[in-house]
Every structure is written in C-alpha cells, then in structure tokens.
Specification:
Elements (H helix, E strand, L loop, with lengths): L2 H22 L8 E3 L6 E8 L2 E8 H4 L10 E3 H17 L1 H6 L1 H6 L4 H13 L6 H11 E7 L2 E6 L1 H12 L1
Parallel strand pairs: 1-5
Antiparallel strand pairs: 2-3, 3-4, 5-6
Length: 170
C-alpha cells in the first residue's frame, strides 16, 4: 500500500482506543453487571439512530453468538444503572448491613453508629457524586449486579463495604 494510505490508517488506529475508552467510561456498571442466566459478564454497548445514541448492557455470550436463553440479553443502560443505584442507596441506609461487618470495624476502632452515619451520608449525597466517584463506590462495595427474568439482584462485597467506611470515616 502507499505511504499516504498507511499514514491515514495509522491515524484511524490511533483514534480508536480513545473512542472506545470514552464509551467505556460511561459504563457505570462496568465489571459489575452479569447475566443472571448464563453468569456471563454483560458488556456496555450502544447503537444509534440519527443523532441519538442508545446505551445498553448486553450479555457477552449473546454478543459472541453463543447460546444464552435469557430474556434480558440486552438491557437499557440508563434504567439498569438507575435501578442498581437505588438498590445501593437503600442498602447503604440499612442498619443490618452495617451490623454484618461490624467485626472488621471494631478492630479499626470505628463504632457501629459512626459506621451507619457514614453510609447514610454516602446514600444521601449519592446523586451529587461525580460519575467516577459513583463508579469507584460501586466497584468497591458491589460484588455483582445480576440481571435475570426476575429483576436485578445486587450482591454486596462486605470487605469493600468495610473498606469504604474506613476510608470515609478517617
């Protein structure tokens, strides 16, 4: 091929990772969301119609043309992100959740009521957090968000939850 064609192709390749990265950076549930039927990670993807882009999380097995019988092979990203955020906010206010991890907090010298206040505060300011902060909190405290025919189940990472409390309480 000619030198000009080669250089044009290199420019296109150089721009690709940035484009892919910018789309991935909008995926709040990246590395967290899973297909409930085949237990495969779901991939952030999008399609467009005109100037409008529609974001989705799609079962990776479905995208690879492997067999997945889930009715939720593709779920709207905004809806599932809002649902998971609402579940997380509710769990952060749940005093029983904090009580489950109190043993680790006791060794760090943090009282149960102080830990509960930290989590309630985090829940109350959730909407004001920047995207990256929300993503960091989710990756720290959510082991997985499983989407299946019955809805969404959020599995908490107890160690991550106690780490969050320790970080915010200090």
């Amino acid at each position: 091929i000619g030198e000009e064609t080669f250089e044009n192709a290199q420019e296109i390749f150089d721009k690709q990772p940035e484009k892919a990265k910018s789309q991935d950076s909008k995926a709040l549930l990246r590395d967290v969301i899973r297909c409930g039927l085949c237990d495969c990670p779901m991939t952030h993807t999008y399609c467009g119609k005109g100037n409008k882009k529609y974001r989705y999380y799609s079962c990776s097995n479905h995208l690879r043309k492997k067999r997945c019988l889930s009715a939720n092979k593709n779920v709207p990203a905004g809806e599932v992100e809002e649902s998971v955020s609402n579940i997380v906010k509710k769990l952060l206010k749940d005093t029983a959740i904090t009580a489950l991890i109190v043993h680790k907090l006791d060794t760090a010298g943090i009282a149960l009521d102080a830990a509960q206040n930290v989590l309630k505060h985090t829940s109350n300011i959730w909407e004001a957090l920047h995207f990256q902060e929300k993503q960091k909190v989710l990756k720290l405290i959510v082991k997985s968000a499983v989407v299946d025919d019955k809805g969404i189940r959020v599995l908490l990472n107890q160690d991550g939850l106690s780490d969050l409390i320790l970080e915010l309480a200090s």
